[in-house]
Specification:
about 500 residues, 18 helices, single chain, alpha+beta, 3 domains, about 10% strand, globular
Length: about 500
């Protein structure tokens, strides 16, 4: 009861609102520290020891907070304890699901002791040219009699289209690691990269869903190249699946130069198109959620799409129960949920840009007076959304990429509708395409979008080149976040 009473205090500077406001920064900071600790952990016994220490610290904080709440102790002290609980939890959780680092001496010991190692694949995370690059782990070194377990992050390359399902286990010779035994990872930041053709044997097939996802990708690939020219097909394949394996690089460069590269990342636009298609047949929220989960799994649980999915859940709950969304509550819950599902990607630029986009939209929704005028809904409101997203993302973009297009708020106003209409007809053409009607319309709209972006990509005068230090970029990002908190 004391906890409920404490959380129900009101006001901008009330403890509960401040806790929610600080949750996202604390999770991000805790994740960063957890990663830094992992950089110096090479063996599982070290990993287990640090995990136990962090877990014990968290338990002590919980017990201490319980005693303070039971005795109605000073509110400020309780607030400080809750801050440390969130912070310690973020460090522990990020650390506990992390990857072990390696250095040349570690690998030399393993190579000298064992002739083989086991590698297990996860979801696809990136593609280069004709190769699929798959996130994988060395899960143990072996002499085929005993296994010394480990968890070292590596890249596995395959020369066919998305041909390895997640959960597959391969046997490799440790000879393939010898060139990395002379590299200090902490200095060179060079990941171990292996090729599927170098594996000695496939020990275990991947999951049935992983295999199904591969088959679906192959079907999409074949139908796109049946109905569209190779350039459009390659780019559309990248947009639908999140795979850049066959992308036309000049067009991708145009997306980046015009500030529309988010259209290539599986996120809110893709989810809205999916819901628009499903909405033709039903308005049932449960069906929307079901199809969203299926697409999320198909896409490999990409962090930006995961954020969009949780945003959809919140939108459904807010509408169904007529709730009034709070800026800091939505931010805290989105960050926490994504962190629970994808802790290793919580600090990725994809998540930060995705989170800032939804928060910028939410801030406009909460701050701008509502109007029923069509001009406001069709023109002014979308422009405010686009402008606010650009402002919120600016410090992160400049500190990461060092440049941005100042016209991107206006370009996005035209590019996003064109993109959505094009993908809508393109997806329809994958299922039914009488007389090539849908593919021709989709191709025409996508060509129009490409020409539009290639045209604006030529105007270098609107590109701001300014490389911000990361510390400055994140500080400005936090100050904008604090401003939204105070004025929403």
């Amino acid at each position: 009861m004391n906890l409920i009473k404490w959380l129900n205090t009101k006001g901008k500077l009330s403890c509960n609102r401040l806790i929610f406001f600080l949750t996202s920064p604390l999770i991000l900071l805790g994740s960063f520290i957890g990663e830094q600790i992992l950089n110096n952990i090479y063996f599982l016994n070290q990993f287990y020891l640090i995990s136990i220490i962090l877990l014990f610290t968290l338990l002590v904080l919980f017990i201490f907070s319980y005693i303070l709440l039971k005795n109605n102790t000073n509110t400020i002290l309780i607030f400080i304890i809750f801050v440390f609980i969130i912070f310690t939890f973020a460090i522990l959780y990020r650390f506990s699901v992390g990857d072990l680092s390696y250095n040349y001496s570690t690998l030399q010991q393993y190579i000298a002791k064992y002739p083989y190692f086991y590698l297990r694949t996860t979801d696809f995370i990136q593609d280069y040219e004709k190769y699929s690059r798959i996130k994988s782990y060395i899960i143990g070194f072996t002499d085929l009699k005993k296994i010394e377990k480990t968890k070292i992050f590596v890249y596995l390359y395959s020369d066919t289209i998305s041909s390895i399902s997640s959960g597959s286990i391969f046997l490799f010779s440790t000879d393939t690691l010898k060139k990395y035994s002379n590299i200090n990872y902490l200095e060179d930041k060079q990941r171990i990269s292996l090729s599927r053709v170098d594996s000695l044997a496939k020990i275990k097939d991947g999951s049935w869903f992983g295999k199904l996802r591969i088959e679906i990708r192959k079907i999409i690939f074949e139908r796109l190249f049946k109905y569209y020219d190779r350039w459009n097909a390659a780019n559309i394949y990248a947009i639908i699946t999140g795979s850049n394996q066959f992308i036309y690089q000049p067009l991708k460069d145009a997306f980046q130069k015009t500030g529309t590269s988010h259209l290539f990342a599986l996120s809110g636009q893709h989810l809205s198109i999916l819901l628009l298609i499903v909405g033709i047949f039903t308005s049932n929220s449960f069906i929307f959620i079901l199809f969203s989960i299926l697409y999320l799994a198909f896409a490999g649980w990409q962090v930006s799409f995961l954020r969009a999915f949780f945003s959809l859940l919140f939108a459904i709950l807010i509408k169904r129960y007529n709730l009034k969304p709070s800026f800091e509550n939505i931010c805290a819950m989105l960050t926490l949920l994504v962190f629970m599902f994808e802790p290793t990607n919580i600090l990725s630029i994809s998540f930060l840009l995705s989170l800032s986009a939804i928060l910028a939209i939410l801030a406009v929704y909460l701050m701008v007076p509502k109007s029923k005028k069509k001009v406001f809904k069709i023109l002014l409101l979308p422009f405010l959304f686009s402008l606010n997203i650009s402002i919120f993302q600016l410090p992160i973009i400049l500190s990461t990429f060092g440049k941005t297009n100042l016209l991107s708020p206006i370009i996005n106003l035209i590019a996003i509708p064109l993109f959505c209409f094009a993908i809508y007809f393109i997806v329809a053409s994958l299922f039914i395409n009488p007389f090539y009607i849908f593919s021709n319309i989709g191709s025409g709209l996508f060509n129009l979008l490409s020409l539009f972006l290639l045209f604006f990509a030529k105007f270098k005068v609107f590109i701001l080149n300014l490389k911000l230090p990361e510390s400055i970029g994140y500080l400005i990002f936090f100050l904008i976040y604090a401003f939204y908190y105070l004025f929403t």
